[in-house]
Specification:
Elements: E1 16-17, H1 19-25, H2 30-38, E2 46-48, E3 51-55, H3 56-65
Helix pairs in contact: 1-2
């Protein structure tokens, strides 16, 4: 059986990544990635005929939205942040 190279061995990264490659794309272990998916901090991926695939563009956006070490701001916007703004 021909083995498909992972994204690090290709000239380009595929748009869709399986779980281990998606976790690697954002620089974490699959178990930590699963934790962030459960917490809603990473996308759930698309289920395509029984195969879960993560869009690397959405992974990039989710990664950019993670707080920096020194940030204490919540990841989700405050529901009342715009209250009273006209």
């Amino acid at each position: 059986m021909k083995q498909v190279p992972d994204h690090r061995e290709r000239a380009y990264a595929p748009r869709g990544l399986r779980r281990a490659a998606a976790a690697d794309w954002v620089g974490m272990s699959p178990s930590k990635f699963d934790e962030l998916v459960r917490d809603g901090l990473m996308p759930r991926g698309k289920l395509v005929r029984g195969c879960r695939v993560w869009d690397r563009y959405l992974l990039d956006m989710a990664f950019e939205n993670l707080p920096d070490e020194d940030e204490a701001a919540p990841l989700a916007p405050d529901a009342n942040a715009w209250a009273g703004v006209t």
